[in-house]
Amino acid sequence: MPRFGPHPDRRPVLIAGGSSGIGAATGVMLAAAGYPVALGARRLERCQEYVDQIVDAGGEAVAVSLDVTDPASVDDCVLKAEAALGEIEVVVSGAGDMSPGRTYEVSTDEFAAQVNIHLTGAQRLYRRIVPEMMARLRGDFVFISSDIAADTRPHMGSYAAAKAGLEAFAHTAQMEVEGSGVRVSLVRPGQTLTGMGMNVDPETTTAMLTDWGPFGFARHGNFMKPEHLATAITAVVGMPRGAHMRLVEVEAEAPLPRTPRSATDTGETR
Question: Which residues, in sequence order, are CB contacts of 119 under 8 Å at separation 6+?
Answer without folding.
Answer: 162, 163, 165, 166, 169
